[in-house]
Amino acid sequence: MKNDNTWFLAGAVLASTLVVAACAGVPSAQELDKIAAQTLGASFRDQGVAKVDRLVQDDANRECSAADIAGKPIDAQVGRRIEAASLKTVQMPPDGKFLGDWKLGEAIAQNGRGLTWTDPAGSVNGGNCYNCHQISKAEVSYGTIGPSLYNYGKLRGVSNPESGEAKAIVEYTWGKLWNARAYNACSGMPRFGHAQILGEKQLKDVMALLLDPASPVNQ
Ligand code: HEC
To answer: What CATH architecture is 102-218?
Structure first.
């Protein structure tokens, strides 16, 4: 199957499958989900760094998809279980330092490259944060899927994060970046540390963008 046409063809296959399914009776949401998964599985192949195993859902993905399909919020107990398990995956920086260079963090937040089949193996990923968040005022092009992070540290009264003064906020922010599900079971934010999208040094630089009082985010 040609790469450019994958989605179009997947759509066509899905549509024809649905017509057949509809003749045999209306498929349930679960059956439709199964058909969609099979169609996706048959329509993609490994290419470069983009591997088909990305279609495999982990437990949290599966539980959150099931809730979505049922049109309900995640069951509170299941949600708490996902959050607790996600929090356990968070690896704090071994040297106890959470903040790097906000200027490098800004470049990472701006950079949406990485993980596609055209990216050479071993290339450095971006964080793509502006795709979902307002961050610094200088950037006027941003998405609104996530909340604005402008004045992130300032609004939380963080004036000297290196002193340990704002430990709870600093650790929460690190955990959120490492694995967003630790604080919101069905978060739509990429799990930057957990999924090895960003490395420890990159995470520190992004932390500085959000929390360093000298960062334009907190002016
Ligand atoms: C695909 C969209 C998406 C991307 C990309 C994304 N985020 Fe988020 N982010 C969200 C959403 C949605 C929320 C709110 C829901 C939640 O808490 O998970 C959020 C929440 C947050 C929060 C918590 C805010 C608070 O007030 O507690 C922080 C901090 C954050 N994002 C930082 C970042 C940074 C830094 C990056 C880039 C490295 C980033 N996000 C990339 C969607 C995204």
So the answer is: Orthogonal Bundle (1.10)
